[in-house]
Write a structure and sequence with these properties.
Strand order of the largest sheet: 4-10-9-8-5-6-7-11
Number of domains: 3
CATH topology of the largest domain: Endonuclease, Chain A
Number of strands: 11
Number of helices: 14
Helix content: 40-55%
Structural class: alpha+beta
Largest sheet: 8 strands, mixed
InterPro entries: Sig_transdc_resp-reg_C-effctor, TrmB-like, Tscrpt_reg_LuxR_C, WH-like_DNA-bd_sf
Strand content: 5-15%
Order of helices and strands: HEHHEEHHEHEHEHEEEEHEHHHHH
Shape: elongated
Distance between the termini: 65 Å
Pfam families: GerE
Protein name: Helix-turn-helix transcriptional regulator
CATH architecture of the largest domain: 2-Layer Sandwich
Length: about 350
């Protein structure tokens, strides 16, 4: 806000006194303050304050014709929709002006992006940037998606994504695919049970994308054109680390390709079935390692409730009285234990 510029006045609160007074004016059409005091039994101070609030909100206006300077003003009620237009319009105009100024400032600052890149030590290829706010991260992803030429690789751990996130991503992803960009995405197996994720995957795979799933994924990652990698920030949940150093990006791409080769094609599921036996194996393995329910759920991308239900079914099926015992008994069950679980202990 510029020096000398006044901040928009705060909206006064409408209380019981203002409501009673406004109803009175609506019944009578027009009224003086003295009449309102007598009719409602208010004090002069309370009536004056309530009238000032209603006038400030443009819910009352004074009668234009006055008999004389000593004549008490007569008030007329104003429809709330009209009052809202008068009272809110200046605030909305101020917000639009501030947003326009913010966009102009952003555009001016982004002009210097190339200067910044060229002027840093080891300019261009050797870069590691830290972003701490979500809005800047999302803006960067949008810009990288628009400029993506050949390939995008995505790792999305944590089970199903939120429907609003999927809705925001679909337009951007279909635009990349339509330009001939190869899109590969890795989810965890639990995402196959999530209907919004099923619908999203159906749309992008129909357009040419590839989606696979694994039991466990190391962490969230986006890689554009094998040149820029976006990783989660260690301390900031809304932040990210942007990597442009070629050797580091090459390493991340190698990790993705290795995970991709061991992943399964995304197949929608309606309930836990035999196609998710590797999830059961993972639960047993983590139980045998002594991991808590909360950690297992987070590791495998499922809700805590689903995780505990799954554990209860495994305990019942194995005839085990404890989680550790379930892990021990499962090592003798090749159908549940799997090679990793059998090697535990």
């Amino acid at each position: 806000m510029a020096d000398g510029e006044l901040a928009p006045a705060a909206f006064p609160q409408i209380g019981e006194g203002e409501m009673a007074l406004y109803r009175l004016f609506l019944r009578r059409g027009r009224f003086t303050l003295d009449e309102a005091v007598r009719e409602l039994g208010l004090t002069d101070e309370d009536a004056t304050r309530s009238v000032e609030v209603l006038i400030d909100l443009h819910l009352l206006r004074t009668e234009p014709e006055e008999a004389g300077a000593d004549t008490p003003p007569t008030y007329l009620p104003v429809p709330p929709s009209i009052a809202a237009a008068y009272r809110v319009a200046p605030v909305e105009a101020d917000l639009r002006r501030q947003l326009a100024e913010a966009e102009r400032a952003r555009a001016q600052l982004l002009i210097l992006e190339e200067v910044y890149s060229a002027g840093r030590p080891h300019a261009g290829a050797h870069r590691l940037d830290e972003i701490l706010d979500l809005a800047t991260v999302l803006d960067l992803i949008e810009r990288l998606a628009v400029g993506c030429r050949t390939e995008v690789m995505t790792v999305q751990p944590g089970g199903p994504r939120e429907p609003d996130q999927l809705e925001q991503a679909i337009t951007r992803d279909l635009a990349m695919i339509s330009r001939g960009v190869r899109m590969r995405t890795l989810y965890q197996h639990t995402a196959r049970l999530h209907q919004p994720t099923q619908e999203y995957v159906a749309r992008i795979t129909a357009a040419g994308a590839e989606v696979r799933t694994r039991t466990d994924l190391s962490g969230r990652m986006l890689v554009f054109d094998r040149e820029v990698a976006i990783l989660p920030h260690r301390l900031s949940l809304d932040g990210a680390i942007v990597v442009r150093e070629p050797s580091m990006v090459f390493y991340f791409c190698g990790l993705f390709d290795q995970s991709w080769s061991f992943a399964d094609t995304f197949v929608p599921l309606r309930q836990w079935d035999n196609e998710l036996d590797d999830v059961k194996q993972a639960v047993v393995r983590l139980l045998a390692e002594g991991m808590k329910d909360e950690m297992i759920a987070r590791r495998l991308g499922m809700s805590l409730r689903t995780c505990r239900k799954h554990i209860a079914e495994l305990l019942d099926g194995l005839g085990a009285s404890s989680r550790f015992q379930a892990g021990y008994l499962a090592r003798a069950r090749p159908d549940l234990a799997g090679p990793q679980a059998q090697s535990v202990g």
